[in-house]
Amino acid sequence: MNxxxxxxxxxxxxxxxxxxxxxxxxxxxxxxxxxxxxxxADELGSSKLSGPxxxxxFSQLPHVKWVFPTAKPRFxxxxxxxxxxxxxxYSLNDPSAKDELQIEGLREAVLFLKGLLxxxxxxxxxxxxxxxxxxxxxxxTALMVLLTGGYxxxxxxxxxxxxxxxxxxxxxxxxxxxxxxxxxxxxxDLNHLLQTSWExxxxxxxxxxxxxxxxxxxxxxxxxxGSQVRDILRxxxxxxxWCEYEGAEQEGHWFKEPEGLDDIVKFVKExxxxxxxx
Length: 278
What we know:
The chain is an alpha/beta fold.
């Protein structure tokens, strides 16, 4: 496997489990464009959940170590300036437009994130103790890791995002629904496109359960792009829990409080319990 360019990315921001000896699972969660791992962690930590007023997502999952990586600065074709982003993209309205611009950033990000995944899997002892996810462009990037990596994870969590190269994936997945052979071909095709490598690690990873959430009123990433992710993953054989929201902050492009955070906590608790090794 190619070595991830770890020196090009800042060190991830870490929220350790409490107490440290309780560490059983890890969540690697990616921020959106223009943000950082630290900013996302701070915003998540101050977001409201149901229950005690002092509760936050970290206190509700004390056994989890959170890893918040940060993208490196890139020139944005949309905003015509340098900003932290996982990959460049020409249009948010149509992510397929000039999608060749996305390849370089996604190649580097996938290799970097696979390195983080492998490191956390080594720490907790099993890929089924690790959850991967992200919000907005972070979800899009994490999906490329999921589809190319061959990992069988405890879960995947994506909010307010989309799937890169959707037409490339969708055209075949609808005609070859639940075909394990075709799922392998998708992984190989995406790895060839991104010039990354693919290892099965014992299976193709399609038993990873998925939680997706999207605001019906999202002003930045159209709701239809979020539901497209749902449909593509289901056609590929993933078990997908789908949640729709309305009235979230940032014009619908954020976690709905408290429902969205509650849904994440519930999903993680369920999947971590199911994946715990005896």
